[in-house]
Amino acid sequence: MDEDFAAATAGSSMRENLAHLKGFIEDGRQGGMKYLEDYGKRVSPEFLLPGARSVVAVGVNYYRAARAEEDVAKDGAGIVARYAYGRDYHKVMRKLLKEIAGFIGGRTRVCVDSAPLLEKAYAVAAGLGFIGKNTTLITPELGSWVLLGEIITDLELTYDKPVAGTCGNCTRCLEACPTKALIGPKKMDARRCISYLTIEHKGPIADDLKKGMGKRIFGCDICQEVCPYNLRLPRELAFKGLKESKIAGGELDLKEILEIGSDEEFLRRFAGSPLMRAGLEGMRRNAGIAMGDEG
């Protein structure tokens, strides 16, 4: 299965997720992601589409195989999170969602991460999966290797039911996080998360967090790699639209990153890639940490 989609409306899972987000913001765990602070808008699809009646939640698989960190280090390379191997998924997902929206009919608006919407909450309400202790959406068939998008529509659709799911007594993700960003079950401190530090954070990174970053220069998959729901995936299942262009791949030469001399050169190398989010300054900082050259 490459993609899975179902309809959902606000319910108990929405209230629970809004409460989690409120606590996240009140504790200051969002770091520099100030756009999350206006969380009240995220529970109402009518803010994005007046007259909205339903939300179709879509999950697209992006699982790829990856080499062990020690093998990557031997080659002088840095590790890129799986979702960023190829084309910017926002563009791929938006195209897919528009195709589905055309099939549904009515007035619609498609959302891929950038709109103020509780994506994981709608995915749970739609029966795509449940929220794991690592705060990711875990689906029964594909584990947590899914990218999320939504279609808001003014049509009243037949709703799917949430699925039962639990992590049980497992705490592998909490124990595996090298920077201790998972401060409790379903409780993330983004200020310590490698994905946040290497992508969203601007400026220097605290010394106590650099060692935990290892060779990761864009994003991190550790809490997903150790998850039992993901360990059973025997083969690559990435949606074909994400495979069309291998701009970055799973590894990047660290010296190559440090030798990029201008924003124009960086754009030529990574245009159309999620790596553009970190920018040249951020990627050079990350590569320097991975090489042990940043003080």
Detailed description of the structure:
Helices cover 33% and strands 15% of the residues. The chain is built from 12 helices and 11 strands. The strands form 4 sheets. Strands 1-2-7-4 form a 4-stranded antiparallel β-sheet, sandwiched between helices. Strands 10-3-11 form a 3-stranded mixed β-sheet. A two-stranded antiparallel ribbon has the order 5-6. α1 packs antiparallel against α4. Residues 1-6 have low confidence and may be disordered.
**What portion of the residues fall into strands of 2 or more residues?**
15-25%
Cα radius of gyration in angstroms:
19 Å
Main sheet summary: 4 strands, antiparallel
> Helix/strand-derived class?
alpha+beta
Number of individual domains? 2
User: Segments where pLDDT lies below 50 for 5+ residues?
Assistant: 1-6
What letter string, H or E per element, gives the SSE order?
Answer: EHEHEHEHEEEHEEHHEHHEHHH
Write the layout of secondary structure elements.
Blueprint: E1 3-8, H1 12-26, E2 54-61, H2 69-74, E3 77-80, H3 89-104, E4 108-111, H4 119-125, E5 130-131, E6 137-138, E7 146-153, H5 172-176, E8 182-184, E9 187-188, H6 194-200, H7 207-213, E10 216-218, H8 222-225, H9 228-231, E11 251-253, H10 254-258, H11 263-270, H12 279-291
Summarize, please.
It contains 12 helices and 11 strands. It is of the alpha+beta class and 295 residues long. The chain folds into 2 domains: 131 residues, no CATH class; 108 residues, no CATH class.
Q: Which terms summarize this structure?
A:
295 residues; 4-stranded antiparallel sheet; 3-stranded mixed sheet; 2 domains; disordered N terminus
